[in-house]
């Protein structure tokens, strides 16, 4: 686990730094890319891996809000670029699309996320990616990196409602022209072929015995792809998922537990909080007035990792921790529901 510390002069106590917008690129009518300038004194903190994201802290109508946006640039390009798609009801994404201008500043925390290329994977093992809508953002960073840094073949399945929704259309064409023997791109348009089916996924994936699979997009799309690949024999260690939306906690998710209190250790201080039925452990910490670490709130990034040292909890969604970490008592607290009368957790 990596804990970001505010060491550079421009970093706040929570790790946020002011990044100036160098360029605003209109990708589609409802998606914009922002090229960000990182201050020299904290540039080392903003080095990133392909597939990672930034957490932005913005103030909209008097509310301080945090949102995560993936880099669409690749580290080798020596550029920090995020891409944001307008979303119905998306306060921050819509605000950025409407108001972001070159020269203005955004508060950002250093890059995070585990949706990255596996170290030690063969330089010739295929990368097979499935993107839906704005899910192309981290996929684009991964594709660019693999094509430039290895000999691995790349297959990209990109689903959109229609042709006008395709982000990076020109860039994908340029990559296909530059790497005709290594890059395969297949576009799927719901308006022509209906929603993506398991059969379509099977047909595109081909031999499931080889390669690593990266999936990002709307939840229904991701579920279809994940289930199809698992049914085809792809092992979980070769599946990599990045979720953009906060996973909803089912109404009856905590019906069987009778937790009374939660003990939270944060920054070497211990707090005892009463438990309100249905709350995640992160929500308990917030209700107690604690500034617990968090970012994506989908169970994907691992920022809110905590270790259970007494009692038990179960995770509604977990795309960040491996089996060994879970066995050691780690949870992503944004998705963890207590399952014992008393729970003691430590943010380390």
UniProtKB/TrEMBL annotation:
Cross-referenced InterPro entries, in alphabetical order? 2Fe-2S_ferredoxin-like_sf (IPR036010), 2Fe-2S_ferredoxin-type (IPR001041), 2Fe2S_fd_BS (IPR006058), Beta-grasp_dom_sf (IPR012675), Cbr1-like_FAD-bd_dom (IPR008333), FAD-bd_FR_type (IPR017927), Flavoprot_Pyr_Nucl_cyt_Rdtase (IPR001709), FNR_nucleotide-bd (IPR039261)
Domain FAD-binding FR-type: from-to ranges: 14-118
This protein's record includes keyword Repeat: no
According to the entry, every stretch annotated as the 2Fe-2S ferredoxin-type domain falls at: 260-348
Metal-binding keyword on record:
yes
* Alphabetized Pfam families for the sequence: FAD_binding_6, Fer2, NAD_binding_1
* Protein name per UniProt: Ferredoxin
Native species = Mycolicibacterium duvalii
